[in-house]
Design goal:
The protein is an alpha+beta fold and 105 residues long. It contains three helices and four strands. It has a single domain, classed as Alpha-Beta Plaits (2-Layer Sandwich). Strands 2-3-1-4 form a four-stranded antiparallel sheet.
């Protein structure tokens, strides 16, 4: 069985565009939640003003399907012109340690 994949996607809105960017990302949540393999897709507010999606996918293949799918394309169109640059995306696999439930996402 493939190991789940965790992803962070950091969005840095342009000045004055934060609320629109946040709404665009929030609007994408239901479509992504319905995708096969989505275990977590949650938007977070950072103190520096960035918006961060924390994601968890059942497998690398299902993450790849998500990345190539219409919900991501729709989100990219919705945030066009609202961000300083393309989101910074980091893909990770767990290195569990300590308590089995607390040592991994």
């Amino acid at each position: 069985m493939p190991q789940p994949v965790v992803v962070t996607a950091v969005f840095n809105p342009l000045p004055g565009c934060r609320d629109k960017a946040k709404s665009a990302i929030q609007d994408a949540l239901p479509d992504v939640h319905a995708e096969r393999g989505c275990l977590l897709y949650a938007l977070h507010d950072a103190k520096d003003g960035s918006l961060i999606l924390i994601e968890k996918w059942e497998s690398p293949d299902l993450l790849d399907a998500h990345a190539a799918g219409e919900p991501v394309a729709k989100l990219n169109r919705a945030v066009e012109g609202l961000l300083e640059a393309a989101p910074t995306v980091v893909t990770m696999t767990s290195l569990p340690g300590g308590d089995g439930d607390k040592g991994r996402l």
